[in-house]
Design goal:
The complex is a heterotetramer of chains A (293), B (256), C (253) and D (357).
Chain B lengths: L2 E12 L2 E12 L3 E5 L6 H8 L7 E6 L2 E2 L5 H6 L2 E4 L11 H8 L6 H14 L1 H5 L10 H13 L5 E5 L7 H18 L2 E5 L3 H7 L2 E6 L2 E7 H6 L1 H6 L7 H14 L1
Helix pairs in contact in B: 3-6
Chain C lengths: L3 E10 L2 E11 L4 E5 L6 H8 L7 E6 L2 E2 L4 H6 L2 E3 L12 H8 L8 H6 L2 H21 L14 H14 L4 E5 L7 H16 L4 E5 L3 H7 L2 E6 L2 E6 L1 H6 L1 H8 L4
Parallel strand pairs in C: 3-8, 3-9, 6-7, 7-8
Antiparallel strand pairs in C: 1-2, 1-4, 4-5, 9-10
Chain D lengths: L9 H4 L5 H20 L2 H26 L7 H17 L4 H23 L4 H21 L1 H4 L5 E2 L4 E2 L2 E2 L3 H23 L2 H11 L1 H6 L4 H27 L1 E2 L6 H14 L4 H21 L9 H19 L3 H15 L22
Antiparallel strand pairs in D: 1-4, 2-3
The chains are: A mainly alpha (293), B alpha/beta (256), C alpha/beta (253), D mainly alpha (357).
Chain lengths: 293, 256, 253, 357
């Protein structure tokens, strides 16, 4: 019984890490631009496809694949900022949100049109093999441990970046008051470009980590819809919040899928997020500051 | 001493509304120049046009002989020209200290920044006390101090100040003007000052312009402007009661 | 019965005590001014009166009854306010802004409004007439149909005053009414404050830094520092109080 | 340019600002009423869809454009309306009653969503409504006994006072009439204290409440009204497609509905109607354009790319929406030949944190 619970817990944590990664992408963009990137899931999918291409067609090793996917996606992210988002810089958040929805449509459509990608499901080979580790009666795949480990490392790096690096702070400053950022000599447009590159890179990384768990598919991006509640649950704009939110949702889903009737698993995430928001309207780690008048 | 900042026939507008109708003014190196004018005369627009927040429709803005109109604001800051915006333009969710660090965004000399940080904490001890607090939680006046301190951290050679005394207590207003004089005298910083408190502004200014409805209508040294009848009446609030009495009677009638 | 009273009011945010045991009374028909250094807690007191913040201690009573509930209950009791940093409805015209001030005098129901019955039309015309009086008083006529977003600071300040007056309050809270105004506009503000008091019978509670304006219009002044009362009395008394000079006015130099 | 000299307070309140307006709207009404005799059956069928989406768009516009509350869950209200209508019709309830019930039930659900949403802002509200959408969709799918689950439900033609509206024209008139009523109702609300309170909440919650606006009451009211209109739209939609399944009311539908509001132009009733027309016409344009695209590309993919591109291009070039574009064209002709180039010149805009509202 305990073993089984532990098993479910680990499965949930691994799945939760994936949600957390996608949620992180959301939070990053939000922290730096105050917009919600609805194309985050699709960017992740695109990153996974680039990784897939590098791994299967070019035959590159896993680490090179990751690097390749991140680089390509970062460039795409910056390109998107330059071409599509810069013209609406300074417009209300909702305008930008609608643009990201449009970007999502375009990416999903393009992927189905690329020969070799199409609408089939692909598997991405990983170097972690099929090994398992046994902890107290639970069986955990090495793959899952790798996912958890890499997520943790990325989160730590990003957290430090936003807390201490001048550029990281400048990104937040830009989102909070663009005008003041200009007055301080922060190159707002360049900072914005970097944030989109960064977030697309994180999306690619997430896509590749996700590949062994969820397979590479053109609808893989819809996982973004699960990551939303994760990001909100933790408190939008908080890096640790994205992780905690992702983990909670992963674990809840894992247990709900086992213990509750069919169908509950899919809505569990949403029920949880509604329940938490009722108690804490800004999520678990969300800032509760109110406007000063 | 040459002119560090020159505006020639600058016209700016918000959409179809023209706010500046050909403003020309000169700010000499190392001086304090003030621009007086009623609300809506275009003072803030003038400053925003200089710092690149608004692109002028016509005319030139020259900074050290180089035309800077239409340039991105961050490049203008890098050139050494920083504006202290009116009101509470702080980064509300960053700590006070991070706000100040952002002021020094364009600088690479860590030691100099640390020195200047100590200096502004000396000017405004309350900011040191609140260094870890989110700037959005400061009171209105404290945010104003933060905005001024933050601009000083960029170590600019020219500062544009938009209503530095807005919402500050009489004591702090005096202190702010002392600080303005000090950075001007001790560090040779050139200052272009826009201020409702014309008393204070004319006291510290070497030279003054009067802006009305988007045009410069008068200019002279600070001391001479303070002597002029019109200035005394409209900007310093020293006027005879006769005109007022009449208006008052009219107002009563309108209300009933 | 005291008109308006604050007793032992206190509030802390996190560890910081923002207001610490402040008590004062405002008599009906007077102009009562709160002065004090920046961060002394003046605006916080306004926000406590407006029930935007919850006090940690003390009580506020208006016309013999305690103020409680949500901010709109305060407005319904006949207390209106302006904001230090101007909180207007930016994407609406001056007229619409003032009409929102009439909200507490709304008498029609949603169902009637959906059908726009003659009764609704009559009510609207009456509201409009009431607003026009305020427009006349504050000389806002030629800004009537302008969008607030495009107006200069000084005019917005007056619009905000107008919106507060449109509620026909018995007590009005003015947060730095003259900040950002030039001497001429400040002069107008002084006249309007006197008009409110004498002609309209509105009691005024204000926070202000311009000591000329304060001594000209105030009946009594309260000085705060670091959340505590340091002096109370006539403008002249408070201005010459050593603690006030020390903390707020600064010595002459 | 037309200058209106105001001589009467009533002028600000009345329905038509001047005679010209009355003329143009009258002409529009005549054309719309004559439409069944002028256009093909296919076009008429599309016009029915435009009316239905316009009603939904109006409802969403009230909430998003005028009260400033974001909803990514409006497909759920659409579903509530559609299923209520389907169920009541199958029980033999007359149409007038059943569509009223659809509106009321949707409004009730709107209140249930609106109440917890009172404390939520921005993205948190968006996600809460999104979650609500997913949950409703799942309930409909699982509640087999009542909703038919994923097998769906069939509907018969509307029976109005005993007359079945089987012809395209008759159903079109029903949709048109309800659209006109919805417009009128919203115009009336927006020129009354309630509408002003909505706008006040959108622009500044804090000062709205300090002016005596009960935030909880008006936000809930806005949710309820918006949901009611969407419910009516849902009921008509159910009749129009005659067969409803849970897949028609997913999150993607919600996003499509929001697109109506954005493309139309936030904060304008015209925009809601124009946006609805746009979203119906767009797929037709895309399928027409398909002939010019390379052979062999998967149709769904092309559709998705083109839709995305149009959305993006549209927002970049016209952030104010279709209504904003219309105003510009109209102004151009009104002031011709004195159009100043700078009149609608875009200003550099600067965003400020909305987290502190």
């Amino acid at each position: 019984m305990l073993g089984q619970s532990l098993q479910l817990l680990f499965a949930g944590v691994a799945q939760g890490c994936v949600y957390a990664l996608v949620a992180l992408g959301f939070v990053l963009i939000y922290k730096a631009t105050e917009t919600v990137n609805f194309a985050q899931g699709d960017m992740m999918m695109l990153g996974a496809f680039f990784g897939l291409t590098a791994a299967t067609i070019l035959g590159w090793p896993y680490w090179a694949t990751i690097l390749f996917a991140i680089t390509v996606m970062a460039v795409i992210g910056m390109g998107l900022e330059r071409v599509v988002l810069r013209p609406v810089l300074g417009y209300p958040t909702f305008t930008v949100v609608m643009i990201t929805i449009g970007i999502g449509y375009v990416i999903r459509g393009i992927v189905t049109m690329v020969p070799g990608w199409g609408t089939e499901t692909h598997a991405l080979p990983t170097p972690f093999g099929n090994g398992v580790v046994r902890i107290g009666g639970a069986v955990i795949a090495v793959e899952q441990i790798a996912v958890i480990g890499m997520t943790a490392a990325l989160v730590a790096a990003l957290f430090l970046f936003f807390r201490f690096a001048k550029l990281g702070v400048a990104m937040q400053a830009t989102s909070q008051n663009q005008l003041a950022a200009y007055y301080m000599g922060i190159p707002v447009q360049r900072v914005n470009m970097m944030i989109w590159g960064l977030s697309a890179g994180v999306a690619a990384f997430g896509g590749i980590l996700l590949a062994p768990v969820a397979f590479v598919h053109s609808n893989m991006g819809f996982i973004g819809l699960k990551a939303f509640p994760a990001a909100v649950l933790g408190g939008f704009g908080s890096v640790p919040g994205a992780i905690v939110g992702g983990l909670i949702i992963g674990i809840v889903e894992s247990f709900a899928g086992f213990h509750l009737a069919e169908g509950f698993k899919d809505v569990a995430a949403y029920v949880v997020v509604l329940a938490v928001l009722l108690v804490r309207p800004s999520g678990i780690f969300g800032e509760t500051v109110s406007k000063k008048v | 001493m040459g002119a560090v900042l020159e505006l020639a026939n600058v016209e700016s507008s918000y959409g179809p509304v023209q706010a500046l109708r050909g403003v020309s003014l000169t700010v000499p190196e190392g001086k304090i120049v003030t621009v007086l004018g009623a609300n809506g005369a275009g003072k803030t627009t003038t400053l925003k046009t200089i710092s690149g927040i608004i692109a002028p429709r016509k005319g030139q803005v020259k900074f050290r002989g180089e035309e800077i109109q239409g340039r991105a604001p961050d490049r203008i800051v890098r050139a050494g020209l920083v504006q202290v915006p009116e009101g509470r333009e702080v980064f509300p969710l960053l700590s006070v200290e991070d706000n100040l660090r952002m002021g020094a965004y364009t600088r690479r000399d860590a030691d100099g920044v640390a020195q200047d940080l100590a200096m502004v904490f000396g000017y405004f001890p309350i900011l040191r006390e609140r260094a870890r607090q989110e700037a959005g939680q400061l009171s209105g006046g404290q945010q104003q101090m933060l905005a001024i301190a933050r601009a000083l951290l960029a170590r600019p050679s020219v500062v544009l100040m938009d209503e530095p005394s807005l919402g500050l207590s009489p004591k702090l207003t005096k202190e702010i003007f002392d600080i303005i004089l000090r950075i001007n005298r001790e560090r040779g910083v050139t200052i272009l000052l826009v201020e409702q408190n014309a008393h204070m502004a004319l006291k510290v200014a070497d030279y003054g312009y009067v802006l009305e409805v988007g045009r410069i209508v008068m200019e002279d040294t600070g001391a001479r402007l303070a002597e002029k009848e019109d200035i005394r009446e409209f900007y310093l609030g020293m006027k005879s009661g006769g005109v007022r009495g009449e208006r008052r009677w009219k107002r009563k009638k309108l209300w009933r | 019965m005291t008109f308006f009273a604050v007793e032992n009011l206190g509030v802390r945010f996190g560890g910081v005590v923002a207001v610490d045991g402040v008590s004062f009374e405002v008599k009906q028909g007077e102009v009562y001014t709160i002065i004090g250094p920046n961060g002394a807690g003046k605006t916080t007191i306004f926000n406590l009166i407006g029930l935007i913040y919850r006090p940690t201690s003390g009580r506020i009573s208006f016309e013999g009854r305690e103020l409680e509930g949500a901010p709109h209950h305060v407005a319904e009791r006949g207390i209106a306010r302006t904001f230090q940093n101007i909180e207007l409805f930016e994407h609406a015209t001056v007229l619409q802004n003032l009409l929102i001030g009439r909200h507490r005098h709304r008498r029609t129901s949603l169902a009637e409004e959906i059908l726009f019955l003659p009764r609704v039309r009559r009510a609207e015309l009456a509201q409009r007439a009431a607003v026009e009086k305020v427009i006349d008083l504050l000389e806002l006529a030629h800004h009537r149909d302008s969008m607030v977003a495009g107006l200069p600071y000084g005019v917005r300040k007056v619009v905000e005053l107008g919106r507060a007056l449109a509620t026909e309050p018995r007590l009005i809270l003015l947060d730095e009414p003259s900040s950002g105004l030039n001497p001429e506009e400040t002069d107008d503000m002084a006249f309007w404050i006197e008009d409110m008091k004498k002609e309209l019978g509105i009691t005024v509670l204000m926070v202000e830094h311009d000591m000329n304006l304060v001594s000209r219009v105030s009946d009594r002044v309260l000085a705060l520092n670091e959340g505590r009362v340091i002096a109370e009395g006539t403008p002249a008394e408070v201005q010459s109080h050593p603690a006030v000079v020390e903390a707020y006015l600064g010595g002459d130099d | 340019m037309r200058f209106l000299f105001k001589t009467d307070y009533d002028q600000d309140i009345r329905l038509f600002q001047h005679g010209g307006q009355m003329f143009w709207y009258g002409l529009l009404a005549v054309v719309l009423i004559a439409a069944p005799f002028l256009v093909s059956e296919y076009v008429l069928s599309q016009m029915q869809f435009v009316c239905i989406y316009a009603i939904v768009g109006l409802g969403l516009m009230l909430l998003v454009g005028y009260t400033g509350q974001i909803s990514l869950g409006h497909a759920a209200f659409l579903a509530v309306g559609a299923y209520t209508e389907a169920l009541l019709q199958s029980k033999g309830v007359p149409f007038v009653l059943s569509i009223s019930c659809a509106a009321l039930f949707a409004a009730a659900i709107g209140v249930i969503v609106g109440l917890p949403a009172l404390r939520l802002k921005g993205i948190y509200l968006a996600i809460a409504t999104l979650a609500f959408n997913v949950i409703v969709e799942e309930i409909i799918t699982r509640w087999d006994a009542v909703t038919g689950g994923s097998r769906g439900m069939h509907l018969k033609a509307v029976q109005l006072f005993g007359y079945p509206l089987t012809s395209d024209a008759s159903f079109y008139y029903l949709c048109l009439a309800l659209t006109a009523l919805a417009c009128l109702a919203l115009i009336n609300i927006l020129r009354s204290p309630t509408g002003r309170a909505f706008v006040a909440i959108r622009d500044s919650e804090i000062s709205a409440s300090c002016m005596g606006v009960n935030l909880a009451k008006y936000k809930t009211m806005s949710f309820a009204l918006s949901a009611a209109l969407t419910g009516v739209g849902g009921a008509l939609y159910a009749h129009k497609v005659a067969f409803i399944t849970p897949e028609q009311f997913t999150l993607l539908t919600s996003i499509e509905l929001v697109t109506i509001v954005i493309i139309g132009g936030i904060g304008s009733l015209h925009g809601a109607v124009l946006g609805a027309a746009f979203i119906i016409v767009l797929p037709q344009l895309i399928s027409m354009a398909k002939d010019f695209l390379p052979e062999g590309a998967p149709a769904a993919g092309v559709q998705s790319v083109v839709f995305g591109l149009i959305l993006i291009t549209f927002i970049i070039f016209e952030p104010l929406g279709l209504y904003g574009r219309w105003i510009k064209i109209r102004t151009y002709f009104q002031v011709f030949p004195f159009y100043r180039r700078g009149t609608f010149q875009r200003q550099r805009a600067y965003l400020k944190s909305e987290r502190l509202r």
